[in-house]
Amino acid sequence: MLGEIHWNKQEYAWLQSLIANPEFADRVDDVVMEFGNSLYQKSVDRYVAGEAVPIEDVQRAWRNTLGLGDPPPIYADLYKAVREVNLRRRGKHQMRVLCGDPYIDWDKVKTKDDIGPYLGHRDQWSAQVVKDEVLAKHHRAFLIAGSAHFLRERGNGYIEPELRRAGAKTFVILAGTNAVKGYDDLDHRFDSWPAPSIALVNGNWVGELPAIPVISGGTESVDPPVKLKDEADALLYLGPRDSLIAVDSVREEVDRTPYGKELLRRMRLLGFDLPFIPDAKEHPQFDRPEPGDGSEESPAPPKTMDAPLPPRPPSQ
Predict the structure, then answer these.
(1) Are 225 and 218 in contact (CB under 8 A)?
(2) 298 falls in which pLDDT band (50, 70, 90)?
(3) Which domain covers residue 94, as residue numbers?
(4) Do the beta carbons of residue 158 and residue 122 sit within 8 Å?
(5) Are strands 245-247 and 282-284 parallel, antiparallel or unpaired?
C-alpha cells in the first residue's frame, strides 16, 4: 500500500520503473489505483491486456473519478506502463489494473446530492474491490492512493483494518521528503541518501520523525505530532523537498474544451469555482505556506454522504 503524494513527478518515474521490473511483474497480480473509476473496469481490462481500445474509452477511468480537476499525464502513463509490460510478457504472468474509486456516472449526475453516496463511500468501495478481486482470488496487489487513505493514526482508518479482517497481509509505505517540522526544518541526515530510497521505519531515527511534515513537505503538521513508525511500515524518500516537482494537466486538453466545461460543472455542483490548470506544466511540489493559507471554509459536503451506494451498473 503506497500512500502517494498526488501529482509528484519523481514518485511516478519511480513507479514506472518499478512496474517495468521483471521481478515486480512476476510477483504482483493487481495494481489498484485510486485514480480509476470502477464504472470503466471493462475498458481498462482490455487496454492493459494489450487490446486495441480507443483512448477516449479508457481515459474515462482516470478522468471521471471523484477527484476534482484533470489528473496530469503521469496517471495515464502508469496505466500505459502496465499495458506495455503485459505486451512484452505475452505467454507469461499478466498484471491487471483495478479501478479503486466508486462507479459514479457523471453523465447522470445533476445535483450535489447525486454525488454524496459515492463521495461518502470511497474507502469502503476501494476495500471491497480488493476483497473481491484480490483476496478472494489469492492474489498479490500493489495499492496506490493518497496518504490519507492509508495513514494508520491520522488517516481515514478504514481500508487497512478492513483488509486485515479479511485475511490480508498488509505493508504500508508513505512517500515523503526531508521536511521534519515546519517549512524551514529540513533534516540533513537525508543528504547522503540516494533519491529515491526506501527505508523501514521501525527501530531507527526515521521512524521517530513526525509523519505529517515528512509527507507534506513541512506545509502541514498536527498537534500532538504522530511518528512515522506509528503511521506506516516504510518511507519512500523521494528526494530533498525543494527538488520535488508537481506535474499539471495539459492545458490544451482542458481549457475551452467540452471536458474542461464538464470539470467546471462538477466543481460547481460541489460548491467550488476554482482555476484548476496552472500556467506552468511543472512547478515546485511544495510552496512556502503564506499567512491565511487553508483558512477558507470549504463548501458543506452533500447531505447524502451516508446514503448507501446505488447498485453497480454493468462495467463499460
Answers:
(1) no
(2) confident
(3) 2-170+245-284
(4) no
(5) antiparallel
Crossing angle of helices 9-20 and 73-88, rounded to 10°:
10
Task: At 102, list the grid cell.
Answer: 466508486
- The CATH number for 64's domain is 3.40.50
Is residue 98 in some structural domain? Answer: yes
10 inside domain = yes
Q: For residue 73, what is its C-alpha cell?
A: 499525464
Mean pLDDT for 206-222 is 96
pTM: 0.96
pLDDT at 251: 78
CA–CA dist 6, 298 (Å, integer): 20
Q: Angle 216-1-140 (CA atoms, 0-180°, nearest 5)?
A: 165
In a domain, 299, yes or no: no
Q: Give the Cα separation of 313 and 316 in Å (integer).
A: 9
CA distance 260 to 241: 31
Cβ count near 182 (within 10 Å) = 12
What is the rounded CA–CA span in Å between residue 85 and residue 94? 8
Q: How far apart are CA 118 and CA 309, in angstroms?
A: 6
Distance CA 156, CA 315 (A): 27
Residue 300 resides in a domain: no
Q: How many domains does the chain have?
A: 1
Task: Report the SS3 class of residue 4.
Answer: strand
- pLDDT single digits (tens) 86-114: 999 998 999 999 999 999 999 999 999 99
